[in-house]
Structures are given as C-alpha cells and as structure tokens.
Specification:
The chain has 365 residues and is α+β, with helices and mostly antiparallel strands. 24% of the residues lie in helices and 34% in strands. The strands form four sheets. The protein has a six-stranded mixed β-sheet with strand order 6-7-8-3-9-10, with helices on both faces. It has a five-stranded mixed barrel with strand order 11-12-13-20-14. A five-stranded antiparallel β-sheet has the order 15-19-16-17-18, with no helix packed on it. Bound molecules: adenosine-5'-triphosphate and magnesium ion.
Amino acid sequence: MNSAAHSPSSLIDLTHVQKSYDGKTLVIKDLNLSIAKGEFLTLLGASGSGKTTTLMMLAGFETPTRGEIRMAGKPIQNVPAHKRGMGMVFQNYALFPHMTVSENLAYPLKMRGLDRSTIETKVKRAIDMVQLHDMQLRRPSELSGGQQQRVALARAMVFEPQVILMDEPLGALDKNLREHMQYEIKQLHRSLGVTVVYVTHDQGEALTMSDRVAVFHQGDIAQIGAPTTLYEHPENAYVATFIGENNVLHGQLKGRQGEQVDVALNAGLNTRGVAVGALGATGQDIQLLIRPEKVRLCAIGPSSYQATLADRVYLGDHIRVHLKLSNGDTLIVKTANDQSINALRNGQPVGFTWNPEDARVFTAR
Ligand SMILES: Nc1ncnc2c1ncn2[C@@H]1O[C@H](COP(=O)(O)OP(=O)(O)OP(=O)(O)O)[C@@H](O)[C@H]1O
Ligand SMILES: [Mg+2]
C-alpha cells in the first residue's frame, strides 16, 4: 500500500502526500492511495479527518505541502483545477442562480467550446439521466433541494469527465430521497464507467455504494478495502468500532493456539478469539471485540458464560439485550424478537456464548 509505483490499472496515484494549512499541523500525514480507473472509491471518516482536504487536492483547489499526485502516470500538481477534466459535486451545490436548469447544464459544454447542436444533444441526455424533464426552464430557486442536487450531479457529468469528485452530495436530503439518489448515482457510475471519488461520513452510504472504502482517521488511512473486508476483517480496533458496532472488552493475553489466542477478560471470562496483528507476550493488555449480532444467548451451562440481564430495547425486527458482566461492563447482544427473550426479567442471570472465530483480539491502545 505504501508503494510509490504507478500500477497499470490505477488512474490516480497519491504518494506520500502531506498537507498542512498552517505550516505546523499536518492534517494529512502521509497519504498513499491508488485509485483504479472506473472505481467507486469512498473516503469515509469522522469530522476533521481530512476527507475534504484530500478531495480538494485531487480537484486542484488545494496543493499538497509534500508528496505527489499523478493522473495516468503524469504529475498534476501544476495543472489548474479547470484543466484537470474532473466533474465536481459539493455539498452546497453552487448552481448558477440566474441560469435555468438547461443553461446550468450547457455551461460546462460552452466553456469547452462545443458547437450548439452537440450541446443540445448532451444537455438533453443529461436531463434524461436525472429525470428532470419538466424542470428544464426553471431556475435553481424554483427547485427542491433534491432536484437541485440532481442538476448538480448532471452538471458534473454532462461533459463526460474521466473522474467525478463528490463531497457529501446527499448531505442535505431526507432519508428517502437520499436512498433514491444513492441508487441513481450508482446507476450512473455503472452505465458511464466513470471513476468516482466520493466523500461521506455516513457509513451505510459508504458500504452500499462503494467498490472500496478508505477509512480516514486523523489524517491517515486507518484501512482501505472492499466494504465486506472492512466489516468482516478490520485490521485495527479503530476500524472495528467505526464500521458497524462492536463490544469492546479488555483483558490480558494468556496463550496462543495457531490463529487464535486465549484471553482472560477483566469481566472474569476466559475465552478465545482470532489474533489480529502482533499481540506481544503473555500478560499483554488486549481488547477483544465481538459484534452484538455474533453473541448468542443460551441456557446457563458448563460451556456458557454468565451475566445478568440489564435491559431490553425493542426495535421491531430485533431486540437489543444489554447484559451486565461481573465487573460492571455492558455487553450488547442483538437477537431475534422471540418469546424466550420476552419471558426474561431484568436482574435475572442469563447464559451467552460466541464462536471464537467471530471475536477479534487486538493489542490495547
Ligand atoms: N482552509 C483551511 N484552513 C485551515 N485549516 C483547515 C482548512 N480546511 C480544513 N482545515 C482543517 O483540516 C482538518 C481536516 O479538515 P477536512 O475539511 O479535510 O475534514 P473532513 O474530513 O472533510 O471533515 P467533515 O466531515 O467535517 O467535512 C481539520 O482539522 C480542519 O479544521
Ligand atoms: Mg468535509
């Protein structure tokens, strides 16, 4: 991942990119990232982790403090934004307020000196693409937020760029429209084969739309991979807790059994999990992570662990059960909504278990 080489399938390469706005703090620390042609890559991360900064450097609105950005193998640092041939959609769509929808869409084509009939054909196709037929003559102020975002999307695509950069383009939309637009963007990506770099802090959006997701954490990529890889095989505790939900239980390393390790948890359980990364020697402080849907409630017996029922939260299709462990830690269990759960009382002892292959053990930070 840290290789500086340009791989034949990559369209954009960032190598050892750093960015500081004030000359002191690095908001991007050492970014090494290759984006494949036709890929849908999402930059996902907490607020302030450096997503927009990275997109701005790709767009040409910010320059890296150090390092290099190449497109098709050629450095683009000195290529101004409007010559990079990238379509852009930002959260505050910035349509031209005095122009109609059609005029907004024609603008990037006029700028590129295309002839009138070509412009007409392309604008018509763009309008078809985002299904805004009846809105062509309206100005942005006469459109809903979602319609404006569709125009912004069409305008970013109308000149058939190789790359489209989108920074939280659906941020202002309600859930239904958001899901509809996610679907439309995905369809457009598939049908046009364009390379998309997408920024969001909504992990559901990132996981459903992307070929790969780069999880940003304090100016670094904590992990990059396919959505299933990030969910099933997080490489560090940050990604494990950021993507989806995980119970985090602290304890010490007791021994190693191949891929798995025996651990003694502070909650008084002796258990086993899959070791991730170097864990150090016996006695080392570790954290064991287990997803709520991977914990099973069961009868109390020799092979079960035991806790007391603290609470149940009804969520329609499933129930979240809060268990209190002997040291006071809470363990969340996600379980099907069935009668046996409803028969239990708060404060009552309950048995639970998990498969060691579903528990992941990391060194404690
Ligand atoms: N123009 C700027 N001048 C100085 N500092 C900046 C500037 N833009 C961003 N920063 C700082 O750089 C860091 C990264 O910001 P960035 O906008 O890239 O984060 P982000 O991941 O896009 O966050 P969000 O999810 O809130 O949009 C933050 O600490 C931010 O305060
Ligand atoms: Mg941002």
